[in-house]
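tokens incoming
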């Protein structure tokens, strides 16, 4: 007979119902706590992921900054670490195809034998190499083999010229007349133009400190000059060059193309800039800050109506009367810095660099062939390639949130907005590809360290501008020293 189901008592059913309600409430609390824990864990993970992403972006940016050098930024070459191995593809310019060493047509300084040597020494054998017989007095067979040694002569003692200013009495009227010393001979003892020229050459043209320049002048000339005398040379040279620099500033605005640059230099514990405006034959420099007022202080660029080849600094934008051309070397440097750090994500930068290199080669070839401009087909190809690279740069970077992506987008937009200025060298063959003529003439590029006063730098600019003006920076014999000597002698002429 089957068992009948057990029917619990009413109090037991009530207890079970109460127990079930308690368990359901406990389960609800546990589910709520688990949900809160999951939300907290998700929030913590999200915050941690955001922190990791921020740190990764910071590390990426620091690595990018650490990887910059003079070829991918505005840093000077002296800031490059000597202990860091430089990548072989530092530049996106590619190989030129030229062999190392001197190029055809470059100036040569080969040492050649002199047809009239100062001395001759006969190096004949003293005895026979076979039997030992004395060969003294025996005739020389054939022409001897000539070997010449060029040696520097020791500095001669200085030449001292005494000017005796004499007085004479006229036998007719009894008036006493006193003679006149040559112009420029004013002191009881002084240095001549040659000593002034060598001191100016050392301290202004070769950027030697005054103490070292004084020692060098003494070693080469035999005249022991003081460091104070050498320090005063800069002011004397600057005063002599005043009329010359005024004439240069009059001629530069008439040039169809000017190259401009501003180079930082630390002076008197502060950052100043050396401003350069030049052509192939004329150079003018002055110092100041980086404002548009300082740029105009040189007296060359205000009102200029030609073409200014410069970098992308906005301080030149107020010069609205001139056409502007951006330096291609600066563009290649920015593209190289972007592409080197993210070659897969910044393919457009490589394409743009290839375009600039190719366009520059075509412009140089057309210029050498005597053409005034590239043909329309070449210009159309260049612009099509240019705009395609810009479009890819914007498309590849506009949704990226990394610093490299932001930099890539900013650079691509810069190339988009300034197409005419960047391609000016291809449209007008009179315009150079880079502003390097102005950059390499700035003495701040080679003067390291901090100068204690600004005045010596300003004075040095005058003589440096003269020496770096090719038509006036050399004498007929090619001597920079002779230029300074002529300046000194011209100042001593009567009537000056």
């Amino acid at each position: 007979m089957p068992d009948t189901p057990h029917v619990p008592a009413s109090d037991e059913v009530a207890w079970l119902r109460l127990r079930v309600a308690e368990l359901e409430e406990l389960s609800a609390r546990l589910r709520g706590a688990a949900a809160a824990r999951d939300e907290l864990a998700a929030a913590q993970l999200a915050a941690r992921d955001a922190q990791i992403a921020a740190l990764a972006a910071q590390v990426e940016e620091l690595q990018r900054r650490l990887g910059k050098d003079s070829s991918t930024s505005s840093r000077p070459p002296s800031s490059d670490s000597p202990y860091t191995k430089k990548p072989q593809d530092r530049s996106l310019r590619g190989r030129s195809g030229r062999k190392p060493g001197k190029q055809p047509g470059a100036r040569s300084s080969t040492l050649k034998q002199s047809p009239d040597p100062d001395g001759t020494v006969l190096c004949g054998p003293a005895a026979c190499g076979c039997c030992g017989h004395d060969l003294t007095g025996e005739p020389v067979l054939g022409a001897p083999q000539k070997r010449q040694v060029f040696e520097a002569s020791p500095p001669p003692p200085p030449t001292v010229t005494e000017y005796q200013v004499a007085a004479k009495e006229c036998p007719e009227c009894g008036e006493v007349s006193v003679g006149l010393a040559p112009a420029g001979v004013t002191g009881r003892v002084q240095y001549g133009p040659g000593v002034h020229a060598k001191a100016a050459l050392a301290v202004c043209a070769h950027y030697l400190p005054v103490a070292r320049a004084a020692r060098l002048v003494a070693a080469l000339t035999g005249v022991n000059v003081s460091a104070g005398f050498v320090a005063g040379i800069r002011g004397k040279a600057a005063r002599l060059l005043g009329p010359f620099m005024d004439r240069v500033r009059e001629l530069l605005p008439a040039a169809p193309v000017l190259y401009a640059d501003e180079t930082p230099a630390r002076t008197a514990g502060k950052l100043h800039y050396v401003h350069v405006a030049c052509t192939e034959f004329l150079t003018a420099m002055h110092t100041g800050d980086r404002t548009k007022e300082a740029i105009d202080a040189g007296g060359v660029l205000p009102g200029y109506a030609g073409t200014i080849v410069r970098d992308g600094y906005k301080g030149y934008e107020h010069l609205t009367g001139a056409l502007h051309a951006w330096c291609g070397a600066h563009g290649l440097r920015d593209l190289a810095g972007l592409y080197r750090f993210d070659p897969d994500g910044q393919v457009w930068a490589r394409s743009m660099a290839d375009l600039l290199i190719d366009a520059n080669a075509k412009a140089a070839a057309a210029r050498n062939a005597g053409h005034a401009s590239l043909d329309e087909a070449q210009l159309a190809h260049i612009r099509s390639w240019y705009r395609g690279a810009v479009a890819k740069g914007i498309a590849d970077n506009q949704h990226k949130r990394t610093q490299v992506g932001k930099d890539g987008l900013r650079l691509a937009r810069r190339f988009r907005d300034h197409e005419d200025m960047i391609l000016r060298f291809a449209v007008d063959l009179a315009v150079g590809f880079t502003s390097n003529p102005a950059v390499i003439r700035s003495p701040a590029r080679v003067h390291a360290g901090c100068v204690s006063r600004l005045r010596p730098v300003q004075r040095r600019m005058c003589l440096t501008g003269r020496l770096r003006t090719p038509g006036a920076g050399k004498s007929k014999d090619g001597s920079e020293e002779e230029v300074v000597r002529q300046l000194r002698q011209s100042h001593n002429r009567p009537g000056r």
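note: Confidence is low (pLDDT under 50) at residues 445-454.
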